[in-house]
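Tutorial, part two.
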Amino acid sequence: MALAARGRGRTAPNPCVGCVIVADGRVVGRGWTQAGGRPHAEAMALAQAGVKARGATAYVTLEPCAHESPRGPACSDLLIAAGVARVVAALEDPDPRTAGRGFARLRDAGIRVETGVRAAEARRSMAGFLMRLARGRPHVTLKLATSLDGCIAMADGSSRWITGPQARAHAHLERSRHDSILVGRGTLEADAPRLDVRLAGLESRAPLRVLLSRTAPDADAGWHVIADPQDIAALPGDHLLVEGGAAVASTFLAADLVDRLLLYRAPILIGGGRHSIGDIGLGDLSSAHGRWSIVESRQLGSDRVEVYERERNEG
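Running the prediction step on this input gives:
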């Protein structure tokens, strides 16, 4: 899964998959889905392993594909040809072109197959691919950087900087893992954000800049404009990062389009500042409960980052 994360935000329409091949207790091949979706993780790992793959175990985060493609052979066929003895996979591929056929093909070739290993973590690692299949839209992360009392800026709008350098670096790493990044018209006019990735070695991984606005911006080229949050379905890629202000955050939350909440909290109190979100359409307090579960929490310098996931029945 750590290998798979290297391709996140760059593999659509294919999922970001990781593969490790182990022979005699030693890793002999590593692979992850490359930019644009090819080569697949298994193909990369098998190429590295070479003849050492024969009799080995292949660990993979998703069922090896079974469908033919002009871009390359099916990974289930590659594993069979390489002579692996065992395949351990986290998830069955929900893509109807494979959906169990890859496992069946491996078993028919005499390869032992184990499934469901660390499935929950694997679903999280390829949430964008699964969300696109389940709901026809990208997986949405809402990023908020707030004070302890929930403010994102002073009353006059000044917000540089609420969080420290470690938290800001982490936020840039998050940008590098998304296909698109969205802000609203107010943020564009107030801050003229670059929305790029300012980490050494990852500068080329800046996501597509998206503006939520009913009118075209008075800005330089390179902005993709959508008029309604539901329009995210037509965006390229499977991962969208929302970095807009309170209005945009509230709009996406009210539309129930946020799947992951990335909350950076600085140990400061602002008082009469600008709050992170406004009305999100809750009718009563009881409906606010049971929507979010925390999946990660850690310290970043003086700040703390918490990651929450929306509780859903699918995706």
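The chain is about 25% helix and 25% strand. In part three we will examine how such features are distributed along the chain.
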